[in-house]
Automatic annotation (TrEMBL):
Domain Metalloprotease TldD/E N-terminal: 32-96
Domain Metalloprotease TldD/E central positions: 124-231
Family in the record: Belongs to the peptidase U62 family.
Gene Ontology MF annotations: metallopeptidase activity
Protein name: Metalloprotease PmbA
GO process terms (BP): proteolysis
Gene3D superfamilies for this protein: PmbA/TldD superfamily
Residue ranges annotated for the Metalloprotease TldD/E C-terminal domain, each copy included: 239-446
GO cellular component terms, A-Z: cytosol
InterPro entries reported in the protein's UniProt record: Metalloprtase-TldD/E_C (IPR045569), Metalloprtase-TldD/E_cen_dom (IPR045570), Metalloprtase-TldD/E_N (IPR002510), PmbA (IPR047657), TldD/PmbA_N (IPR035068), TldD/PmbA_sf (IPR036059)
Species the sequence originates in: Shewanella denitrificans (strain OS217 / ATCC BAA-1090 / DSM 15013)
Amino acid sequence: MSSPNIDIELDALKEAVSVALAHAKKLGSSAAEVAISKQQGLSVSTRTQEVETVEFNKDGALGITVYRGGCKGSSSTSDLSTDAIALAVKAADDIARYTSEDPFSGLADSALMAKNIRDLQLYYPQDIGAEELADLAIRAEKAGVDADTRIKYSDGATANAHTSAKVYANSHGFLQGYCSSRYSLSSVVIGEESDGNMQRDYDYTVSRKFADLLSPEEVGAKAAEKTLSRLDARKIATAKLPVLFAPEIATGLIGHLIGAISGGSLYRKSSFLLDSLHTHIFPDWFSIEEQPHILSGLASANYDSEGVATQDRRIIDRGQLETYLLTSYSARKLGMTNTGHAGGIYNWTLSHSNQTFADLIKAMNTGLIVTEVMGQGVNGVTGDYSRGAAGFYVENGVIQYPVEEITIAGNLKDMFIGIQGVAMDRDLRSSIRTGGILLSEMKIAGN
């Protein structure tokens, strides 16, 4: 049985970090920070409608970083007894005494610490047992296989229920913690083509709240629908064509932007967007809003992993890059201001072009819908992009047939500025909330 009551451990975790900070102070450190997390969860996987694995996890650890001037030492312990914490703090302090000084290390500035802590409604405990999760997974599998005679096999389904408690504190006097929950269900099915070859696809649902998950029948049916649409795929001739990225692929495209404007890439000079702040890298109508405080959002947070307050901000404003994504360390290295992005991004929402995904297909006229990409052919330094792909060939605004075993190529700078439209029907299942993205042109390598 998955216990939903991880919130009762929050006070004990806060006490543990307070103990760690007190030990660091006694040892004469100039500053210290402590993070602790506890996770527990239940995951059930099924295959051919039989339970394959049941995994229960309950773990956590305390991490302590001690600073002596510009010297830094870190250690961790999963034992939260007072003696174990004291030993971990001493180990971190010993390391700090012998490391080289780095003038850019240290806590985030105290003025940036989050003060207005809101209830973001991230925690919805649900008492769920392995039998209930197995039932969800089996129902999703059955719905997929029963959808059509061409669906020959289920390649498995997985249902998850996870909760966590996290606490962060530092010697500025900041000490905060919160609990969160995440539930998900996914299913994969395999269909058989007319020549005996196989195709597979999947679907999934995820939410902070168990009751907000799609039904297993919807997940299974959608996995089957996507698989059936890929049957009898073919190659196309090499060409330059407009490309429409499906929403789940569009998030990956924007993920390359995140990497390029993150502080670590910038101070290492390993980004194709060096010196691009306040320049146009997207079309004039295109914007990206960061909204960290969306209630029950999958990437909502009051503060980052250094305690810095998150805030609503425009990442891209009418095509112009408005901010880099900086931690305290990268901000100091670059001589800029910390933006509170230690640990990631927070609910990016892309503007749209007042078109649905179906509208973008029509607007594309002749081109390629990309529903899957493969390989790691993206150069973060130059922006060169080349990946294997699969999807659908479109002619006269109508899908003609599925396509596989092709390569799409371009440069991310050209791809970003060449965005022709973003669909208004957004996929909200990740930290990047976007619809499909239509690009003016990419190179397609096929026959």
